[in-house]
Amino acid sequence: MDTQSTQSSLVGTHIREASAHIDDVKVEVRPGYHLDKIKWFLRVTKGQRSVQVEDHFPDLQLFHDHVRMYMKMERYGAPAFNDRETYRLKKILVKIRSQFESSD
């Protein structure tokens, strides 16, 4: 057996093993807040003072995590939020984090 046929048979073995493991992978699907809902929230609450995020997003931790995720995704493509939205969201996230710290 030559070197090339040995390499191709090894590659074939690894591919079969990898495809056998794909069925074993379980993906955890978490409910979340979609970008459209967050943008809607920003439009509806624009100019309001003392906005209660909990009225729109009951799970503050989930809201916090999803906003952070969308903000980080901006590094890899088109921005999810404009500059004003980003500024407002950062202020909201600071308040949410302070609530988390005070509840601990």
Automatic annotation (TrEMBL):
Domain of life: Eukaryota
Protein name as it appears in the record: Uncharacterized protein
